[in-house]
Amino acid sequence: xxxxxxxxLLAVFVLLFFMIVRIRPxxxxxxxxxxxGLKYTRGRYTGTLDPGQYLILTMFTAIVPVDxxxxxxxxxxxxxxxxxxxxxxxxxxxxxRLSNPDIAINKNSNFRTSLYLTLQMALREIVGKExxxxxxxxxxxIGKKLKDLCATKTSEYGVELLSADVKDIMFPGxxxxxxxxxxxxxxxxxxxxxxxxxxxxxxxxxxxAARLMDDNPNLLHLRSxxxxxxxxxxxxxLGLQNGALPLPRRVDKAPDSMRxxxxxxx
Length: 266
Known about the structure:
The protein is of the alpha+beta class and 266 residues long. Among the domains are: 23-67, no CATH class; 71-170, Band 7 domain (Tetrahydropterin Synthase, Chain A, 2-Layer Sandwich), CATH 3.30.479; 180-219. Helix content is 50%, strand content 25%. The protein is built from eight helices and eight strands, in the order αβββββββααααβααα. The protein has helices at residues 2-23, 101-106, 111-128, 132-137, 139-155, 173-215, 218-230, 256-262; strands spanning 26-31, 35-41, 44-49, 52-57, 61-67, 71-81, 87-98, 159-170. It is elongated and about 145 Å long. The termini are far apart. The model is unreliable at 247-251 and 257-266 (pLDDT under 50).
């Protein structure tokens, strides 16, 4: 009797086991090349898995794939007050990736929100210490300062900040008009300076030419002849020092018969 009871209990356990396996079967989980797998056993984190395929019993174990690729986050038009009291709108683009998925997922409810707020506060701190002229001249330095200022804080979120760049700096309407006038005045001043330099160079060349002609008057005649050779169909009036152009005398030879007739008879 006891043997039959043991066999019956064994059959019940085998049946229950197959029912459990059928309800909660083994599962194959794939962790792709760009992912890491967070392994949880009975709800507790037990390790980070590299890319590959894993066979788990879903009754006790779970694997959560986490994307490790680089991502971008954009901070749109933040109203920031500069050191000289001007309200600006600054937009920012940052590139990041997860450096520690355990901290990023298990220690933060949303690491992207944490990163966004960290960048936002750092941007306000940096812009608030600079004047407008310095911001415009050193615009590229803002991203470097942001990265240095946020590096320690973002590492606490399990995030590595790769880059941070200012997309745009927008001024109020009155400031835009003032800056456009300043730029216009600068361009006009540069154009006037270039014209003055050109005129000075031309006058210097003319002065040098006049000095050479004073030292050697024949250069003026040579230059006139060169202009006459280059002209086509134009009238050129030459002013000579003596007031007239000497012409060679032309002597015509008369025939012998005429010369004999002109001789006086003896």
